[in-house]
Amino acid sequence: MTTVSAAMQLLFELATSWWTVGFLATFTALAYHWSTATFGYWRDRGVPYVRPTVPLFGNIGSRALGTEHQIRMFGRIYDAFRGHPYVGMYQMRTPYLLVCDRTLVNRVLIGDFAHFTDHGIHTDGPEENPLANGLFKMRGAKWKVMRQKLSPVFTAGKLRHMRGQVAACSEQLMRNVAADVPATGGPIEVRDVLGKYSTDVIGTCAFGLQLNAISDEQSEFRRNGKAVFQPSFRMLIKDLIWLISPALRRAIRVSDYPQEVVQFFMAAFTDTMRYRQEHGLVRDDLMQSLIQARTDLVVNKTEPSVTFLETDIVANAFALFAAGFETVSTAMSFCLYELALKKPIQDKVREEMNATKIKHSGEITMNF
């Protein structure tokens, strides 16, 4: 009896193990098929394409894992297909077309722009990400309406009026640099210094705020602004979830930014708009355009075809603030780095600037 029981137990374990192996093999085969089912899209259409290297991740495995910046990834693909007007690639399972030819780029961005308004970037609702629904991430009619409201701020005439404010921030920057270099007796972190400078410039020119980030090491705007772009493991996981499934990201309610950063900027921009309205302050700047947009779109609902919320206005204030200080400081940092590497060009630039200042009596005028 014992022998029969042992034999039955052995047969049961074998059957169970085979069922387990079969299930795992079937699941693996189905998962592989699902993760690679779209990888023939460009091949079937005769489009030159980058062969996917990793199931599910397509061509962006290195970007998804944070081992390669997306700019380097796109640059690598562009160089590999130099001379082709376009090249197919895969972001996860989704086919993407990378346009390389300048004529086609011109058509997409200018000639046929009406057909390419969306940036293809997913955003959650205002509850999960109240700062995420800025102009860059808006879609369709909503994007078009908001763009019409904000575009007049960036005309040549408006930008010329900002010269005095930019000059004042520049003078403060030079005073601080002149004081810091002898005090430290060594090099200074240019990236951080220019980040403070660009924070002050965008604050005063666009929002009428005297942030004093250049002089104040404890500036709340500077600290929270840096936190937006600070790489972290949390940011890597957030981007990975978005790449795998935007629906999954919505389900688990992952925020784009740390909660304390969201609360700070929501309060700062909301309070600024409220203060101006309550005291009747009017300035010809971006904040005034946002206040007018709020009056038209949120209060009076002049565009009944689309719905705008209070958070949409604040999100655009935040998006333009973040874009204003980060892009400027990054571009200037790289410029100074390249000039430091190429002394002859640095000397030539300095000579031209000094000669132009002398020509204009030492003043940086509109003709500078």
From TrEMBL:
Q: How does it sit in the membrane?
A: Peripheral membrane protein
Record key words, sorted:
Endoplasmic reticulum, Heme, Iron, Membrane, Metal-binding, Microsome, Monooxygenase, Oxidoreductase, Transmembrane, Transmembrane helix
Origin: domain of life: Eukaryota
Matching Pfam families, A to Z? p450
Q: GO CC: one term?
A: endoplasmic reticulum membrane
Query: Which cofactors are named for this entry?
Result: heme
Please give the chief subcellular localization of this protein. Answer: endoplasmic reticulum
- Location in the cell: Endoplasmic reticulum membrane; Microsome membrane
Q: Where are the transmembrane segments?
A: 18-42
Q: Which GO terms describe its molecular function?
A: heme binding; iron ion binding; monooxygenase activity; oxidoreductase activity, acting on paired donors, with incorporation or reduction of molecular oxygen
| Family label | Belongs to the cytochrome P450 family.
This protein's name: Cytochrome P450 monooxygenase CYP6CY58
